[in-house]
Prior knowledge:
Blueprint lengths: L27 E7 L4 E7 L4 E5 L5 E8 L2 E5 L2 E5 L4 E4 L5 E4 L6 E8 L5
Antiparallel strand pairs: 1-2, 2-9, 3-8, 4-7, 4-9, 5-6, 5-8
Amino acid sequence: MDPTEPAEPHPRRIRPQDHAVWNRKKMGKSTIYHSDRMLVGVNALEPGQQHSLHAHEGVDKVYLVVSGEGQFLLEGEQITMGPGELLVAPADVPHGVRNESHERLTVLTFLSPGPPR
Length: 117
């Protein structure tokens, strides 16, 4: 599949868990939708995995926890979040996530504007 094209036609009901890519060596990432205006993806973290602190220049990011529990890092703070909870990382603000639990962590991510394809 071309990573610049939506993973599924739209409009369509989507189950983020169905797009989770699990990898024991590093956090799994998949793209559900990508346009110039927005990227929607799924981050899948096995216990002990993390997405290191990073920032997106000129791009806002939203994390929405689908399942599991994670430690989200934002502006020097650590915030524990579980299913249904959301965190906004404004453009240029360092952010990251760690799965310190014994369960898998699935996170839906939204980036706007969408990064270049």
